[in-house]
Write a structure and sequence with these properties.
- The structure is a single chain.
- The chain is mostly beta strands and about 70 residues long.
- Helix content is about 0%, strand content about 55%.
- Strands 1-5-4 form a 3-stranded antiparallel beta sheet, with no helix packed on it. A 3-stranded antiparallel beta sheet has the order 3-2-6, with no helix packed on it.
């Protein structure tokens, strides 16, 4: 489902990560069978929470330390 204005998704920051540059908001691409960062961005990171803005509604995760395929 596409969401033109985006939706904010909140994740618990159980690892205490504080640098957004090491994080990628991603959704599961069922067609390709992998994580994709297309349409999702990290918008805020606190000691307790990570917030992503995504333009669609599917299955989401925050990936630490690497970047998924942009497809």
């Amino acid at each position: 489902v596409d969401v033109p204005d985006g939706i904010i998704i909140r994740f618990d920051n159980n690892l205490g990560i504080t640098l957004a540059k090491n994080l990628t908001c991603a959704s599961w691409n069922v067609t390709l069978g992998n994580w994709s960062s297309q349409g999702c961005v990290v918008v805020n990171v606190t000691a307790a929470e990570i917030f992503c803005n995504c333009s669609h509604a599917t299955d989401f995760s925050v990936l630490a330390g690497g970047e998924p395929d942009s497809s």
